[in-house]
Amino acid sequence: MRHPVRLAAICLLLTSVAGAETGGYVAAIEKWREDFDADIRTGGWLTLVGRCKVDEGTWTLGSDRRAALVLPSKAPAQLGVLSRRGSVFQFEPASGADVSLGGNAITGPVLLSTKHGTDGIKAGDLSLAVRAVGEDFYLLVSDSKNPGIEEFKGTTWYAVSPSYRVAARFVPYVQPQTVRVPLTHADSKETMRSVGDIVFQLAGKSFRLKTFADDEGLFVMFQDDTNGKGTYGGGRFIYAPKPTDGVTALDFNKAFNPYCSLNPYIMCPIPPAQNRLPLKIAAGERFFGE
User: Fold this and answer.
1) Is the separation of the CB atoms in 275 and 209 below 8 Å?
2) Digitized pLDDT (tens) for each residue of the chain, 290 residues in all
3) Is 276 exposed, middle or buried (0-12, 13-18, 19+ CB in 10 A)?
4) What is the largest CA-CA distance in the chain?
5) What is the rounded CA–CA span in Å between residue 190 and residue 268?
6) Deepest in the core among 2, 108, 205, 235, taking most CB within 10 A?
7) What are the chain's domains?
8) Which residues pair with 182 in a beta bridge?
9) Are 206 and 283 within 8 A, CB to CB?
10) How many Å apart are CA 274 and CA 18, to the nearest integer?
């Protein structure tokens, strides 16, 4: 959904667009939003059902309320024991527990990888993985049959307005910055890489936002005067294409809420203080609370 755009195409779309051109732009945004909802349903954002910080030591796992780390009710009463020694994690299944790792049934102790994308422990519909979040480690529990997936009715958006798609000048830093960004639901901070700011005009005023490096472009977190009054209180996110000749496009019609607004078990980065815009951005995804 995020593709670099040539400078000529940017300029064309940022001039007054009328008639069929405007209709084509609106249709493209609406298709982007359909794809966005499809990704929410299938991308795992709604499967996370548990999150526990794992400190040094040994922890019993299971749905039994006496377990050190209590799992959802569909888990066995005693699933096993999770041990942490530094950054090394070991899991030993309880006697008779039906669990697997990487598609193979396990009956004895196994080491668990904390790298994103690696397999976790499987127990029926549940998957358990240990992941580094900032300076800490968390046990993340996912349910492939979480009712929340079927209950998701789609996101709500402001009407598409081409006026909220603006040209932005990219201002690179002399040296990339390593920024420690606070997270929701976590004490530690995530390290993110920032390579420059974007400067743009909106509503007759000039604004500057800090960006973060992304494989496909620039990642921007921002807050504005609609937060808590029609949009998510913690701010919103947006992606911009990689700059071409120092220019990119910032399309607030694609501004979306952090996924922690959909699922409280997800931890999201919090927009930096300098990315507060003192105006209403009545574009992009809306939010009306629970």
Assistant:
1) yes
2) 444 333 434 444 444 434 446 789 999 999 999 999 999 999 999 999 999 999 999 999 999 999 999 999 999 999 999 999 999 999 999 999 999 999 999 999 999 999 988 999 999 999 999 999 888 999 999 999 999 999 999 999 999 999 999 999 999 999 999 999 999 988 888 999 999 999 999 999 999 999 999 888 999 999 999 999 999 999 999 999 999 999 999 999 999 999 999 999 999 999 999 999 999 999 999 998 65
3) middle
4) 69
5) 9
6) 235
7) 7-44+155-275 (no CATH), 48-145 (2.60.200.20)
8) 189
9) no
10) 35
| 239, 219 contact by CB (below 8 A) | yes
DSSP 40-78: HHHSSTTTEEEEEE--SEEEEEESSTTSSEEPPTTS-S-
Q: Which pair of structure tokens corresponds to residue 92?
A: 């030993």
Phi and psi at residue 204, in whole multiples of 5°? Answer: 75, 10
Question: Which amino acid, 149?
Answer: I
What is the dihedral angle through the alpha carbons of 129, 188, 192, 282, rounded to the nearest 10 degrees? 100
Please tell me what DSSP assigns to residue 274. Answer: G
What sign does the CA torsion over 103, 109, 110, 114 have? positive
